[in-house]
Amino acid sequence: RAGLTDTTDRAGAVLVCDATGQMSAIVSLTTDSISDQLDMHATYKRGETAVISSGQEDPIETTVRYSPANKVIEIGAHTPAARIYNSVIRGNTISIAVEHADEVTTTLPAPDATFKAFAKTCMSARTKAPN
Q1: Which of 16, 44, 58, 123 is most enclosed, with most CB atoms within 10 A?
Q2: What pLDDT score was predicted for residue 125?
Q3: Distances from the Cα of 120 to the Cαs of 7, 48, 107, 129, in angstroms?
Q4: Model confidence over 65-89: pLDDT tens digits?
């Protein structure tokens, strides 16, 4: 249950949905291929505070794991990861500011058939999950 955007002209993201429909995300802080970034051997990660903004919604502050070697952040909490997901659906630009990294602003690719299948699978998991 994962969806990947892999472009070289803008920052990419990986959205993951667990068996209960809860989301997490990995977001690139550069325009490099996120697939290549994830393939890099980068064992050191640090906890950071990130501020995620999208569209007209109030920014969300959350704790992320930042990997300085491959310039990605891991968002483990559902609400900020869902903000990334919703930005795809709405076509909103997202901005992510992390204390020890450059701020990134990107628009993720519009939903395609693969994204729609991911969304359907995730929604199905959420509705089937026990409360």
Answers
A1: 16
A2: 82
A3: 23, 31, 22, 14
A4: 998 888 888 999 999 999 998 998 8
Write out the two tokens for 43: 């064992």
State the pLDDT at residue 131: 62
Amino acid at site 102:
D
Q: Which of 108-122 are b and which e, b meaning 16 or more Cβ less than 10 Å from the residue's Cβ?
A: beeeeeebeebbeeb
State pTM to two decimals. 0.84
Helix (H/G/I), strand (E/B), else coil: 38: helix
Mean pLDDT of the chain: 85
| Residues forming a β-bridge with 72 | 28, 67
Output the DSSP codes for 112-127: -HHHHHHHHHHHHHHH
User: What residue has token string 């500011």?
Assistant: 97
Going by C-alpha positions, the residue among 99, 101, 118, 98 that lies closest to residue 109 is: 118
